[in-house]
Amino acid sequence: MRNGYSVVDLFCGGGGFSRGFEDAGLTTVLAIDNNRAAARTFAGNFSNAVVLVEDIRSLSCDDLLYLLNNKRPTIVIGSPPCEPFTGANPARKKEPLDRLYKDPVGQLVLEFIRIIECLQPKIFVMENVPALLEGDLKVALKEEFRRAGFNVVFNILRAEDYGTPSHRVRLFASNIPLRPKKLRRRVSVWDAIGDLPEPSEDPVIPNHEKPPRLSKRKLKRVTRLQWGRSVILYEGAGGRRLPNLIRLHPHKVAPTVLGCSRFIHPFEDRLLTVREQARLMGFPDDHVFLGGRDEQYNQVGEAVPPTMAKAIASYILNLLVGGNA
After folding, report:
1. 138-196 confidence digits (pLDDT tens)
2. Cα–Cα distance between 103 and 132 in angstroms, integer?
3. Are 2 and 22 in contact (CB under 8 A)?
4. Quick one: CA dihedral 48, 54, 55, 60, positive or negative?
5. Could you give the CA distance from residue 103 to residue 80 in angstroms, rounded to a whole number?
6. 82 is a catalytic site residue
7. Hey, what domains does the chain have and what are their CATH numbers?
C-alpha cells in the first residue's frame, strides 16, 4: 500500500470505482464480483488486488477477515446493482420498500451494509441511483446503516462536474459528507474521443475494434439522424419513454452511459467502439476490458466513472491525511 490506506471494492465490476481511488493514491486490496468477465477485467487492471469471483451473499464475516489477514480496511466502496431501483427498469416493484426487502437483487444493498458492519472501515462509500431514496426507502436505509453502527449521509453528485464527458447523477451513501472539488469546465464528447484513430480489426488502442454493424433498416435512419436525436425509444418504469441509439452532439456532454445503451458517432454513421464509450466514462486507454463485446460494453456502462471516483477519493484522502476522518 502506497500510504497505508487500504480499499475493499464490493460489486467491483470492471473497476471504475477502484480506478479512481487508485489514481488518487489509494490501494485496492480486495475486490469481489460474481460476474466472471468483469472479475477478469478487474484482475487484469489491478495486479495488487485479490479478486474473488463469488456471490457476496455466500461470504461470511470470517471469510472476509481471513482474506484480509484480519486487517480491517480503511475504506469500503461498492456499487450494488441498481436495476431494482432505477426508473429505467419497467419491471421494478411498485412499492419502494419491496425493492429493498423483497427483490433478491435489491437485497444486495443490505449485503453491502452487512459487510461494512463486519469490517467496520473508517469510511464507506456506496454508489447507486438517486431512486434508492424513493418513498420510505430513505428512512429504512438510515435505520439499516444505524444498526450496522454508522450514521449515513446521502450525497447526490453529477459526474460531469468532475471531468466526466457524460451526464450521470448518482447517489453516494457514506458515513461522511462528500464534497469533492468541482471543475470549472465541462469535457465534451469531442474533447474525449476526437483524437482517436479509425476503428480497425487490429487496433493499437485496446477495445477500439470496429463496432457491430447496424442493420440496414437502422442504418437508413441513422444517416438522417441529427445530433441529440435517437433511433429508438424504449419503455422504462411508469411508461416513461427513454432514448437509445442517440447521435452524440460533439460539443456537449454525452447522455448517461448505460450497460444497455449504445451511441452513434457524431460524424460517422456507426456505433461507438467500446473504447469510445469508455472514454465517455473517463476511463484511461490503458484500462483494458475483457470478455465478449457485449460484456465489455456492459462493464463500461455499469461502472462508476473513474474521473468522478478520483474526485471523491482525493477528497477522502485529504481528510485521512489531515486526521479529519
Report:
1. 999 999 999 999 999 999 999 999 999 999 999 999 999 999 999 999 999 999 999 99
2. 13
3. no
4. negative
5. 13
6. yes
7. 6-182+303-321 (3.40.50.150), 189-292 (no CATH)
The answer to whether 266 and 249 have CB atoms below 8 angstroms apart is yes
- Single out the catalytic residue among 61, 82, 118, 260: 82
Block residue for cell numbers 432505477: 86
Strand boundaries in the chain, DSSP class E: 6-10, 27-33, 50-53, 75-78, 123-128, 153-158, 169-174, 230-235, 241-247, 263-264
User: Between the CA atoms of 181, 77, 37 and 237, what dihedral angle is there, to the nearest 10 degrees?
Assistant: -80
C-alpha span between 307 and 23 (Å, rounded): 9
Predicted model pTM: 0.94
Closest of 28, 26, 33, 45 to residue 278, by C-alpha:
45
- Find the helix or strand (DSSP H, E) in which 37 lies: helix 36-45
| Non-local CB neighbours of 205 within 8 Å, separated by 6+ positions | 196, 197, 275, 285
The pairing of beta strand 153-158 with beta strand 169-174: antiparallel
Secondary structure of 163-192 in HEC code, one letter for each residue: CCCECCEEEEEECCCCCCCCCCCCCCHHHH
Name the residue among 125, 152, 108, 78 with its Cα closest to residue 302.
78
Report angle CA 286, 291, 295 to the nearest 5 degrees: 100
